[in-house]
Amino acid sequence: MKMFFQKLGRMPTVLTMPAFAVLLVVFGMPIILLFLSSLNAPVFSLVNYQAFFGQPANIRVLYQTAEISAVATAICLVIGYPAAYLMVAASKRLRTTLIVLVIIPYLTSGLVRTYAWVVILGDRGLINNLLLDLGLISSPLPLIYSRIALYIGMVHIMLPLMILPLISVMMGIDRSLMAAGRSMGARPFDTFWRIFFPLSIPGVRSGCLLVFVICLGFYITPAALGGIGDAMLSTFIASQVQTSFNMARVSAAAFVLLGLAVVVLSIFGLDLSGTQGRTAQSTRNSWRSRPFDLMKRRVSELLTPLRAKRWKAQLYRAGSDSRWSNIVGTVFVVLVMFYLLLPELLVVIMSFSAGSFLEFPPPGLSLQWYRSFFGDPSWYDAAWISIKIGVVVAILSTIVGTLAAYGINRTLPRLRSFLTLVILTPITFPVIVVGIAAYLGLLKLGLLGSMTGIVLAHSIGAIGYVVVIVAATLANFDPRLEQAAKSMRAGPLQTFVRVTLPLIRPGIIGGAVFAFLSSFDEIVVTSLVGGLAIRTLPLKMWEGIRHQIDPTIAAVASLMILVPVFGLIVLYLSGLRPSPAGKRALPDVAA
Amino acid sequence: MNISINRRRFIQSTSAIALGAMSCGAGRALAQPSNELRVSVYGGDVGKANVEAYVKPFEAETGIKVTAIPDDVTLPQIELMVTSNNTTVDVVGASSALAHTANLKSLLEQIDYSIFKKDELDAILDFAKKPFGVAGLVYGIPMVYSTEKFPPTGPQPTSWADFWDVEKFPGVRTLETGQGGEEGPWEEALLADGVAADKIYPMDIDRVFASLDKIKPHIRKWWTSGSEGQQLFHDKAVDIGNCYDGRAILLIDQGAPLKINRNQSKLTNDYWVIPKGSPNVQNAQKFIEFATRADRQAAFAKLVPYGPINRNAFKLLPEEVGLKLPSHPKLLANSIVMDTQWYTEVGSGGKTNIERLQERWNEWVI
């Protein structure tokens, strides 16, 4: 047994095996077949790709898809980075609360959230009504059906996915490094820019990667909020699937989208691990390259001892001059939370509506939609099935994904990018194509229409989330700690459980949460592999959506929000201190 | 023509090979006479009405145990089920385009019209009887406008030519998106351009888009689902547009200042179809025959405002209820029944007209 683990320790790639086994069986073989059919096998021709690029509309929409995804990712980073930074700097308790608040929007189905934005931005929506009532405008502003509205909706959906990887990486950064920098006379901005920021790069990368890749596949939000021309490639693919379902052409379009992801990701780098050294290097080089900066730097260096002295003085002075930055920071975090939670608040209010469809403000108050939920076994049965599937998916993909991330982290850099890309394929692909592939894969296993089948199909995507988030945490992990443990005669397993695991716990928890949530909100793949036999909650929510929205989904969403809030209250009341920080091995200097 | 069909068949057969290769080993029990039936009935109000008007009475009459699946079934679902010999649903409520496309791909059983009673069969509207399916309900996509914007005291729009006349009827407009290829603002565009109602098909696609060019700057939003169309009128985000009649009736019943103009209203219908390989084909045939009887159709129309396909159903409905339904003989005369046959025809280039419209739309709309 011991031998086995020692062997494992020496061959890290082996750890990725379980992840690839699941991927290959459920998804890999059918995807290869789809690729062959996109090439018109067995004749092999590029006719489907020629047909795709022969249509100028496709090229324009491809460009537009990349543009919208890139801008949405950039906005997420600009908002998410400071938010994550401030959250990490907060006290443990406050931080836990804020993290839960960030996750809450993710518990609400994407459909409901998009709808809430329609209600907020619409011509008779919250903002326009407010401005009209205040007499600031005489006719409604055209907020909705514009590119801006599209970004507001997309960033709202994606922001948690940017913030969580950032937090999990930032929590692993040893704050004493910054203190050391300050004590040696670095200016606050310098300590941030030259110490903290380079160390947080893995989080930035993995956050951007996840957000960008998922944005590529968007199609409901652009249709509901975007302007008249704001189509994305997945919109085209989805409607093609509905009208003709020409497998060869649809797969060609899907592989083009994957190609786009590969191109963009290879520009920004797929390698999630071990890059902080290089980044720091390049920053330094850029400092040196410009003569003006060089001079400024010289002058600044002269002042260094002075600053070092002052920092020491400040350290012992109560109520430092950072009050203003505290206020600005607090206001910023409050605004971000407001942005994230406003739609949730509206959904909760609309769920008590006495009207017959979702509207704001509700024409009257009633509990009819809650009665409709609890009075109909098909609703709570569906909720229970979704929770069961989500928990199993979270457990499976967290174990398999963490192992894979660990393996990828320890393997050769060149192999690393390739393996990461392969694991991310199910997230990058248009979800309908993933569904078809999973259907074909599960068919072979005889698992269509079974819970096991749905769990496997959900896991192929969930593993990707876990790998990206855990890999980001691992990037800052100092392998010398493991070497130290081993030098003191700890076995590989013992080292992993007692040293590595506690240190990367924030990433693992974050990964597990997103694995659960991605399964909990999944609809397209489930509807294909469920064989019309298993009714999950999202399937139940989408019933009849072609004609109308059943307001019961607002009640369901509200109940879903209650779960984490209730959990938080229990945590507080029991005085049980949650410790997502996992910093046992390091002195806590964050506060 | 021949070449194009061959190419299409070829593409289909390659994907069938891909599917076939995957389906090895998934053994299926052979169909046997059974006392069961699985029907997909849609969700929401329509789903509930389908259960009340058809499923429950059918169970009571025949003793067959029916499982109603409250969901929409999509083309990939049907194709994957049939090509992998894994059909898990016997009767599907399908949109017109879905039914025609599935039929084109040979995914559907033929309807056994021999079990229909003659007087019932004769009363069923002609366009509702297809070899591969029988219509279950008719819905309209009429013009809807705000009576605040166009009050009865002034001129009110009565035709699509009026809709295109932005000088005489200024206002913010909406039309259904054409991204699906089938339901789209095509017929409206041709009617506005002066094409006679009986000369719409076969459609001149160039003329459609030339006409759409003129109205494009005045469109606020191409709506993509019934609930979105409803939202636009509810929020007064638009003054005039087309909309599913059921959605508009709901708004008007709630007091919204809207009016439906049934003249030149587009009509289409959903079909009951049987996917190939259904394990309970005979029961499925019986169910479809049952659901198209006049009394059942009338019971359904009383629950939700969709049009019966059986003329005799109107005899069982009060006149004021019947006149709200798009397939009422009086309304039918001024309506345009969508020619789904034309939509699913394969033209030059090996593409159906749906696909041609879809590609052209994608090109045009950005």
Note down, in words, how this protein is organized.
With 591 residues, chain A is mainly α. Chain A has one domain (12-34, 46-279, 323-354, 377-543, 550-573): MetI-like (MetI-like fold, Orthogonal Bundle), CATH 1.10.3720.10. Chain A has helices at residues 2-10, 17-38, 47-53, 56-89, 92-107, 110-121, 126-133, 147-170, 176-183, 188-216, 220-225, 233-243, 247-268, 276-289, 291-315, 323-351, 368-374, 377-410, 413-428, 431-445, 451-475, 479-487, 492-520, 524-529, 537-542, 552-573. Chain A is globular, with a radius of gyration of 25 Å. By secondary structure, chain B is an alpha/beta fold. In chain B, strands 1, 2, 3, 4, 5, 6, 7, 8, 9 and 10 form a ten-stranded mixed β-sheet that branches. Chain B folds into two domains: 31-138 and 269-340, D-Maltodextrin-Binding Protein, domain 2 (3-Layer(aba) Sandwich), CATH 3.40.190.10; 141-267 and 344-365, Periplasmic binding protein-like II (D-Maltodextrin-Binding Protein, domain 2, 3-Layer(aba) Sandwich), CATH 3.40.190.
**Global Rg of chain A:** 25 Å
Q: Tell me about the largest β-sheet of chain A.
A: none
The number of helices of chain A is 26
Distance between the termini of chain B: 31 Å
Instruction: Summarize the amount of helix of chain A as a percent range.
Output: over 70%
How many separate structural domains of chain A?
1
